Each structure stands twice: as structure tokens, then as C-alpha cells.
Amino acid sequence: MRIRRNGEDVTPSAPKLRQVLALLVLNANSLVSVDQLCEELWEDHPPLSALTTLQTYIYQLRRRLLLATGQHGAAFGSRPPHGCPAILTRVGGYELRLDDKQSVDAYRFDQLIEQGMAQLRTGAGEEEAARTLKAALSLWQGGALVDVSTGRRLSAWSTQLEERRKSVLEQRFSLELQLGRHHTVLDELSEAFRAHPTHEAFAGQLMRALHRCGRRPDALNTFRTLRSHLVEELGLEPSVQLQRLHQEVLADRGHLRGPAPAKAETVSGGRRLVPGPAQLPADVGDFVGRERELDQLETFLGADRPSTGMRVVEVHGPPGVGKSAFAVRAAHRLRPRFPDGQLFIDLSAVGEGSQQLADVLSACLTACGIQREKQPSGLGELSRLFRTWTADRRVLVVVDDALTASQIRAVLPGGSGCAVIATNRYRAHSLSTGRKIVLPALSPEESLQLYDRVAGERSRQEDPGAVQELIGLCEGLPLAIRAVAGRLTARPGWSAARLASRLRGNHRMLLELPAGTQSLMTTVAASHRHLPARSRELLRLLLQRERPRWSLDEVVTRLRPGSGDAETLLEYLVDVHLVQEHLTPDAELLYSVPRLTRQALILLSRGTPAGDVPNGRMVGAGVVAGTGVTLMKADVRR
């Protein structure tokens, strides 16, 4: 670790100061809590004076690095000018503020990697990509944090950085071999293999380079060395790919003597240096609102900082609130940060029982370039293969319409540089990790804005009172607003007043108005379908009142004996977004069913079908030929 300011080395020499500073730098522009700092410094045995000692370390760092004096001799402790590095005291911890994160070589390293992969993906060519990756690797001047005492967190960081370095080395060597520069990289490959004698990718690349240089015996000796280390240290034989390469070198196959085809070079795990999948559905052009929630998601998933683990955001909300559209909008905003691919996994057919999760995951792997005949058959094996493929990649995965945490877990990528956005109908069935975002209904202003965008020019010609009535009937649900505005667009002779009059006298009409491939009835039916019997029984009780709210005592009194704990059942219905909680001024909880949801549930309880096709689904789209596996919905505006 070296810190320079205006060309002067100001690196602290005290081990604890270096440790604190390293943790702050690797989390630049983010809060590092006091608990995290204490754990790093003293693990499970902090001294009684830990907080005071930590404050002293922060004070010394500010003094040593001039982080609080600002420029032009501002007094110590004054607010540093914008653009000046500073250690800021935050609630619960500290933050190292760096306006230019590229002044940290670890961040510059990641930025150059993204640039190199983007050059390869956009057709700039292997030449430019190899040059950029070489520039990234030139930033390294030794092992990661080799001269810093490390606790649990910094040890994890250093391991991750070293693994990232090996991955980039592997990518760069592969590009150089594609360009026919086996002489140029031979010494570097030999050094990399000596440093990592069980790394199969380095061994295979070195064998290719030696064979192309006319050193076939040395190439064969590389294989023997690798096999010896694998057997002695791990009790393993070389992979099938390496054994095949060994046989090709023995047979002196001609295709090994020259540069490999540009898109045929592979590394361990069958990885190919080709552009990754880009499966995101088209963004919704008339998307409205959700800026706060989008910023929260983007800050968590797309923050430009190293990560100790893959990050997950689950999006929850009532039927028709626009979870899928929100996830797709967020994914498009994050797309540049995940250059190795974006996957869209639709689990709605799995929830309906018409498809198996293994089939959906197999289709996903096929999109990643892994042929079906080379894939295992079981879900567990498919999940492991997916984690392997994503282990060293930066991939964004959007999982839409999940029912359970196990479904999400089966399609989680394995790389710490990956991220997942999952839409989940049931908050109670979510993962225990990651962030949760609950989407509220749109405000009246946002609802009107969405209506105007969908209805277009005719919106300005309508009676404002009738439009307001229509929007009020939709209760801020984007699906309902789109359905109403879409119906008026499709019926030029209708007025907003006429449609409002029809909806007033026919509740079912609003519920069944389609917006794309969905209606409110179908999406409520999908949530209702998987409810346990006791939850359905309680819902029937709550539907007996038109609008009033229920107290817990009322529910307990009216619930049939033996039906289970009333409060637990109510909380479950709240978690699946079919019941709302209301807190009174006296801190009493009351429960109610939203009006539109209530009307749909009443129809469902009477046996009214939710659509014209089984399971309430209206259409299917995006089916892979010959497989029947749905990769995408035709419309994501639920």
C-alpha cells in the first residue's frame, strides 16, 4: 500500500493505521461502520477502549494525510472543500470521500477491465482489448495488500483481488494467443504457471504457446508437471479438456501450430471470449415515477466499489403495481456495468406448473453458449454449472415472478461481480439476504402522468373530471391505468365519461381489461392460486365486509376454532400483498383488503375464471423453438 499526495509519499507506517485506511479505501464513498472497523482490527476480542482507540486512529489519519484541513491551510476540523479527499464522520461509522476514485489503483484496475471487455464486445477487436487488459495488469506491483496486516474483511478483499487478477491474466493470455503472439507471452505464461502450478487454464495456454514455438517436449512436460501437482496436492486428475489437449500435442495436430480462430479459444469451464447474452425485454417507454426506488437499487447493485459477494435486490408489491416493468427499467440502467451479459429468467410458467425450473435454467445456459447435449440433467447440477459459468464474469440476472426463495436460489450466479434483480409476489417467501424494495401505488400526479402518456393526444381533449374519476378507480395501479387508457385509445368513439360510467356499474370490466398480456384479474388470481387452505379461509372471512377494517380481536372472535393463529395468518396475507395493514393513532393494527383486490377475490371465490386460458394466463410468448421453454414474456407491464 502506497499513498501519495502531490508527489509526496504520505503512507502511514503504523500497522493499525494502515489497516483502517485500507478498509476505508476499499469502501471509498461508502459508509464503513464502527462494528466493521472493530471486527477488522480486533476480530472477536475488541478492547474496552476500542471506540476511543478507533477515534484516535481516524484523527491520526486525518492529520497524517491532510484529509480534514482541505486546501489553502483551512483550519483542522473545518468542512473540506468539494473535490478534496476527506474522512467524513457519519452516523455509525466513517466514510472516505474520493471524488476521483480512479486515483485508487484497485478501482482503476476494474475500470480498465470493463473497458477492455467492452472493446471486445463492441467489435473494437482483440488488439485493443489485449492492450487495455495489459494496462490494467501493469498497475500491479506485488500481491494485494501484501504489506498490510489483514483481518477477516481485508483478507477476503485481498483474496478477491488476487482471483480477479488471475482471471484477467487468463483473458489477456487468451487474446494474445488468438493474435498469434505466442512468443511474446511465453515468458509471462511460464511465470504465471510457476506461481500457480495447479491452474489448468494457465497450463493449457502455456502448452499451446510452447507447441506453437516448436517446443513440443516442453509442452508435454507442462502437462506432467500439472498432473503431478494436482494428484499430490488435491488428489485430482487433469480435466477432460486438458487431457484432450495433451493428446493433440502428442499427435502434433496441425491446428495447434498456428493462431486459434478468434472465437474458438476456451479456458477452464468452457468459457468463450465472445459477447455475452443480452436478454432484457425492451424498456417501457412510458414508465413513470419510482425514481427513489430506482436510485436505491442502482446505488446498491451498481456502486463502483469492490464487493465481497454477489448482490441481490428483491422487488415486492401488490398485484398490478408494476414490479416487472420496474425490474426491466432498473436492469437497462445498470446494463453498462455488467459487460458479460444480462439474463432474463421468467418463472411464471414454473409457478403455474406448466414448466419445470430445470428446463428454464437449461434454456438459460443454452443462451450462455453451453450446448444442451453438454448439460447435466438435474436441477442441482444445472445450478452448479450456471454458477461455474458466471464465477469470473460480471452478469446481471433478472428473475421475474418468483414464488419461493428456493426458485431464486437455484438461478443465482456464482461470481461476486454479478447481481440479481428478482420480482417476488410473496415477501414471506424471499431470501434472507440482500435488499428488499416494496413498490407503493403511484401518486395521483404520477397516475395522471402515466394516463397521459398512454392515451396520448386524446387525453388533452377529455373531460378532466371524467379522467380523474377513471384514475381514482385504478387506485394508483399502473396495470389498471394502462388498461383503461389503452381501452380508450382502442375505441376512438368512446369518451372518458362513457368508460367511467360503464366501470361504475360493472366492477368486473375493470378487472378484466387487458394491458398487454395481463389483467388485474389474472395477476390477482396468480397470487391467490398458491395460498394455503387456512389463508384462503381467513380471506373469505375478511371479504364479508365491504370496506371497514378488521381489528385482530374481531378476527380472533370470528375465525373458526382450529384454523390457526389469527395474527400469523393475517401477517402472511399482508406479506403476500393481498391484505393491507393500518396503524391507528393508538398504535392498534387494523387490516383491510384493497378495493380492487377485494372485487377480484370475490369473483375468484365464486369460481369465476380469471381468463380464457388455464391458470389465468392470457397468452404465452418468446418460446424457444422445439423446447417449449419460455425465456421472456411478451409484455412486462404487470
UniProtKB/TrEMBL annotation:
**One of the record's GO molecular function terms:** DNA binding
Protein's recorded name: DNA-binding SARP family transcriptional activator
* Family matches, as Gene3D superfamilies: P-loop containing nucleotide triphosphate hydrolases (3.40.50.300), Tetratricopeptide repeat domain (1.25.40.10), Winged helix-like DNA-binding domain superfamily/Winged helix DNA-binding domain (1.10.10.10)
Record bears the keyword Transcription regulation: yes
Record GO biological process: phosphorelay signal transduction system; regulation of DNA-templated transcription
Keyword entries, A-Z: DNA-binding, Transcription, Transcription regulation, Two-component regulatory system
Q: State the InterPro entries in the record.
A: AAA+_ATPase, AAA_16, AfsR-DnrI-RedD_regulator, BTAD, OmpR/PhoB-type_DNA-bd, P-loop_NTPase, Sig_transdc_resp-reg_C-effctor, TPR-like_helical_dom_sf
CDD domains found in the cross-reference section = BTAD
Describe the family membership recorded for this protein in Swiss-Prot or TrEMBL. Answer: Belongs to the AfsR/DnrI/RedD regulatory family.
| DNA-binding region listed in the record | 1-98
The record's annotation in Pfam families points to: AAA_16, BTAD, Trans_reg_C
OmpR/PhoB-type domain residues: 1-98
Q: Could you tell me the superkingdom of the organism this chain comes from?
A: Bacteria
What SUPFAM superfamilies is this protein classified in? Answer: C-terminal effector domain of the bipartite response regulators, P-loop containing nucleoside triphosphate hydrolases, TPR-like
> Which PROSITE patterns does the entry mention?
OMPR_PHOB
